Amino acid sequence: MNNRRLSTNSASATDPRRTHLYDEINSLLSGPSNYQKTSKGILIISKQEYLREGGAARVVQIIDGELNVIETFTSMVKCAEVLGKDPNTLTRWVQTNRQFNWKNKLCTIKKF
């Protein structure tokens, strides 16, 4: 029998070194949350600042110079496939507000 395996070692659950850890985990879980939902977003109470929403874009749009939406995509990858570019290139274009020629119009890409 493997005594070091956690699932077969019944003494590990009552190990005094772990009881302190379990007590600390339970006190953290039973305490108040560090996040609060407000009208502006999710507030981190300990830092007094709002949680930044990052991650993948939900909507990517190609917009012409007159602010008309030319195309809408569900991800940067799908937009990159249509334009024949790398998604990282398009991310840089979004950050620098780079204009490019597409369908005979000067366009930019916006993430929402």
Descriptive notes:
There is one protein chain. The protein contains 3 helices and 7 strands. A 4-stranded antiparallel beta sheet has the order 5-4-7-6. A 3-stranded antiparallel beta sheet has the order 1-2-3, with no helix packed on it. α2 (76-83) crosses α3 (87-96). It has 112 residues and is an alpha+beta fold. A hairpin with a 4-residue loop joins β2 (42-44) and β3.
Q: In DSSP terms, counting alpha (H) and pi (I) runs of 4 or more, how many helices? A: 3
Distance N terminus to C terminus?
56 Å
User: Quick one: overall form?
Assistant: elongated
Strand order of the largest sheet: 5-4-7-6
Mean pLDDT: 83
In short:
The chain has 112 residues and is of the alpha+beta class. 29% of the residues lie in helices and 25% in strands.
List the helices and strands and how they pair.
Elements: H1 16-30, E1 35-37, E2 42-44, E3 49-50, E4 60-64, E5 69-73, H2 76-83, H3 87-96, E6 100-102, E7 105-111
Antiparallel strand pairs: 1-2, 2-3, 4-5, 4-7, 6-7
Helix pairs in contact: 2-3
From the structure above, extract its key features.
112 residues; alpha+beta; four-stranded antiparallel sheet; three-stranded antiparallel sheet; 3 helices; elongated
